[in-house]
């Protein structure tokens, strides 16, 4: 039988998931921690605050525009090989980031680091499918979801802790020992593909993909930051035009880079929609809440970090539970819908906080958000990966990562728009919009329970 059904034996399975967890936590954290360090980076490199934003944007842009391309390369050349190359690039460029002496060199290093992170994130869930036997795939996805969610939510707190005792360069330098450790484990522990594609790499699709998502991100970000409206509109229209050509091309390919073949599977398409909406909601909350806690309630950065902590702690408890439940054949649509409904309730309650809330008022609402998000994400990722045929695991993994990054980009841009429109009430508006995103995602998730929607080729084969 193929390895994606049998998985790895113990203890090799533990070592393999350890390298995945180490690398993905570094990649996701490096997308979040730089926000906290921007003032220090701008001061140290004699750059303006506006120019220093490129330290964040360069990484996110490079990651998003190349995810599907690296996922395609994984299908062709093997997920392990692409993962190892990505890990090596990410680790080496982290050192370049730490040694940068100007904003230009740091931005270039962050672009290269983003490509390394993209290679890691494009195939990580495809590797989880190879590491765990089919009957235990839920817990493998739970661990992966837990690492991503914790890294996203805890990034600002970890960055604040490092900056309290060291300079900003250590935010990147710390990746060297962790990256070397993860690479050594990866060389020994990761499995190879059971299936590899026979098609070649489609460079034209890769360029169309990069142009589509790159222009889309710039236009969304521009709308959020009230940039030059004619320019933003022009970028959006060009993005849509290039995207149309891109999709038309994908429809003619047997193994498309943008997995339009997988989007024809109802449960896959619905799960991608819920992922985009949920990560938009998460980012709306996580970006806006620190402003409210520090500027409106006058909490310190340390207090803010502690008050945000119940969210990732609750995910730690609920994500493994949700993974076990989906293994016991509970519907991912039902589990995800319940989780998203709880998530929406938590966001709504945060948006309706009293004028002078106590710590407890904030903590239990944060915990409710974490419970809901943790209960949703593992089953949703399981549905995305298991609904795709084994030989298209790379495409499914790349699409999962792309959905997360697009959702986070939309959420962060909406926060900027809300603060521009409503000033001091920007956080409350952001949280209420986040609650709407989450409840819409819950509705889409419950749609997956409709007759026949969960019956996909992949699940039937199992």
From TrEMBL:
It comes from the Bacteria. Its main location: membrane. The keyword Transmembrane helix applies. It is a multi-pass membrane protein. The chain crosses the membrane at residues 12-33, 53-73, 85-105, 111-131, 143-162, 168-186, 206-224, 230-247, 267-293, 305-323, 335-356, 405-423, 429-447. InterPro entries: EmrB-like (IPR004638), MFS (IPR011701), MFS_dom (IPR020846), MFS_trans_sf (IPR036259). Keywords: Cell membrane, Membrane, Transmembrane, Transmembrane helix, Transport. Pfam families: MFS_1. PROSITE patterns: MFS. It is found in: Cell membrane. Residues 16-453 form the Major facilitator superfamily (MFS) profile domain. The keyword Metal-binding does not apply. This is MFS transporter. It comes from Silvimonas iriomotensis. The lineage of its organism: Bacteria, Pseudomonadati, Pseudomonadota, Betaproteobacteria, Neisseriales.
């Amino acid at each position: 039988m193929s390895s994606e059904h049998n998985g790895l034996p113990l203890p090799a399975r533990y070592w393999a998931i350890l390298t995945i967890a180490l690398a993905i936590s570094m990649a996701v954290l490096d997308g979040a921690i730089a926000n906290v360090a921007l003032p220090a980076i701008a001061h140290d490199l004699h750059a303006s605050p506006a120019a220093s934003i490129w330290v964040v944007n360069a990484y996110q842009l490079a990651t998003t525009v190349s995810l599907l391309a690296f996922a395609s390369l994984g299908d062709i050349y093997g997920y392990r090989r692409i993962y190892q190359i990505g890990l090596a690039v990410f680790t080496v460029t982290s050192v370049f980031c730490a040694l940068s002496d100007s904003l230009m060199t740091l931005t270039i290093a962050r672009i290269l680091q983003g490509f390394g992170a993209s290679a890691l994130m494009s195939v990580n869930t495809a590797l989880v499918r190879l590491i765990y036997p089919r009957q235990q795939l839920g817990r493998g996805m739970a661990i992966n979801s837990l690492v991503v969610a914790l890294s996203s939510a805890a990034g600002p707190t970890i960055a604040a802790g490092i900056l309290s005792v060291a300079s900003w360069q250590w935010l990147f330098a710390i990746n060297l020992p962790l990256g070397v450790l993860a690479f050594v484990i990866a060389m020994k522990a990761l499995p190879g593909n059971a299936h590899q594609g026979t098609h070649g790499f489609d460079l034209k699709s890769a360029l169309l993909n990069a142009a589509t998502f790159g222009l889309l991100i710039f236009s969304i970000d521009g709308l959020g930051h009230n940039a030059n409206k004619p320019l933003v509109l022009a970028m959006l229209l060009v993005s849509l035009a290039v995207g149309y050509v891109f999709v038309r091309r994908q429809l003619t390919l047997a193994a498309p880079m943008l997995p339009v073949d997988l989007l024809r599977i109802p449960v896959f398409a619905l799960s991608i929609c819920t992922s985009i909406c949920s990560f938009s909601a998460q980012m709306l909350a996580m970006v806006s809440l620190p402003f409210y806690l520090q500027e409106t309630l006058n909490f310190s950065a340390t207090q803010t970090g502690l008050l945000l902590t119940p969210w990732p702690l609750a995910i730690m408890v609920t994500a493994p539970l949700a993974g076990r439940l989906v293994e016991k054949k509970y519907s991912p649509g039902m589990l995800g819908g319940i989780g998203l409904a709880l998530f929406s309730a938590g966001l709504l309650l945060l948006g309706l906080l009293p004028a002078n809330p106590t710590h407890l008022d904030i903590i239990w609402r944060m915990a409710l958000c974490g419970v809901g998000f943790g209960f949703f994400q593992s089953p949703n990722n399981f549905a995305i990966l298991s609904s795709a045929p084994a030989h298209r695991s790379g495409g499914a993994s790349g699409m999962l990562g792309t959905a997360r990054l697009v959702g986070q980009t939309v959420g962060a841009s909406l926060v900027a728009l809300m603060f521009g429109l409503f000033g001091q009430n920007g956080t409350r508006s952001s949280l209420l919009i986040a609650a709407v995103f989450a409840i819409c995602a819950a509705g889409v998730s419950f749609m997956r329970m409709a007759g026949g929607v969960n019956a996909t080729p992949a699940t039937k084969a199992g």
